[in-house]
Specification:
This protein has one domain: Glutaconate Coenzyme A-transferase, CATH 3.40.1080. The chain is built from six helices and eleven strands. The strands form two sheets. Strands 1, 2, 3, 4, 8, 9, 10 and 11 form an eight-stranded mixed β-sheet that branches. Strands 5-7-6 form a three-stranded antiparallel β-sheet. Strand 6 and strand 7 form a beta hairpin. It is globular, with a radius of gyration of 18 Å. The termini are far apart.
Length: 232
């Protein structure tokens, strides 16, 4: 990787500087659009004490389920955790702190962090456990909860295509949290299906400009189906 060229050829280089006790965002929704190889590299490195921001935690033995298995996550901010039995076990035993966050609030905490907004008020969660200990203010007769934004040490995301300068295009619903997370971290690492030369991507269809991206690596994806339903 040199100059404006963001491409790296090894996962070790992609995650250079990734250490214990960091805050890390991981893109994906269910198993759609997760950076499989980057997740696997963090498992291999054995980093511990991580604070993880992700919509959910994969499934047992795949995606972020790998980090759970190795007890690498200390705290997780997530909105949905129903597909992972180990997640439930770690939460109930107190081995892992779980901060359940309404999905829209989670998305806005990430987007706002990327936009340089330190906090915002939302009506979501008022009167529930979500609002406990947080500042409450009334605007035009309605109560709102103050939510602090996120800005992580690393964002690990997945895109469909990138050029060598890190301009990104996502495919369909695999964009999910990935695009916002790309803007909301000190170091953004992107695992992609295809890398093309500068100028090959139509600028009208670029979802995230390369200024937000630090490293790009070409991955190989299993794209496991989260729930398979068949009929006789």
């Amino acid at each position: 990787m040199s100059g404006f060229n963001k491409v790296v050829t090894s996962y070790e280089e992609a995650l250079a500087g990734f250490t214990d006790n960091m805050m890390v965002m991981v893109g994906g929704f269910g198993l759609c659009g997760i950076p499989e190889g980057l997740i696997g590299q963090v498992e291999k490195q054995g980093n511990k004490g991580l604070t993880c921001i992700s919509n959910n935690a994969g499934v047992d033995g795949f995606g972020l389920g790998l980090w759970l298995k190795q007890r690498q996550i200390k705290t997780i901010y997530a909105s949905y955790v129903g597909e992972n039995a180990l997640f439930e076990q770690l939460f109930l035993s107190g081995e892992m702190e779980v901060i359940l966050t309404p999905q829209g609030t989670l998305a806005e905490k990430i987007r706002a962090g990327g936009a340089g907004i330190p906090a915002f008020y939302t009506a979501t969660g008022y009167g529930t456990d979500v609002a406990k200990g947080k500042d409450i203010r009334e605007f035009k007769g309605k109560n709102y909860v103050l939510e602090e934004s996120f800005f992580a040490d690393f964002a690990l995301i997945k895109a469909w295509k990138a050029d060598t300068m890190g301009n990104l295009i996502f495919k369909n619903t695999a964009m999910n949290f990935n695009a916002d997370m790309a803007t909301a971290a000190k170091i953004t690492v992107v695992e992609v299906e295809e890398i093309v030369q500068l100028g090959e991507l139509d600028p009208n269809y670029i979802h995230v400009p390369g200024i937000y991206v630090d490293r790009v690596i070409k991955g190989v994806f299993e794209k496991r189906i989260e729930q398979r339903t068949v009929s006789n």
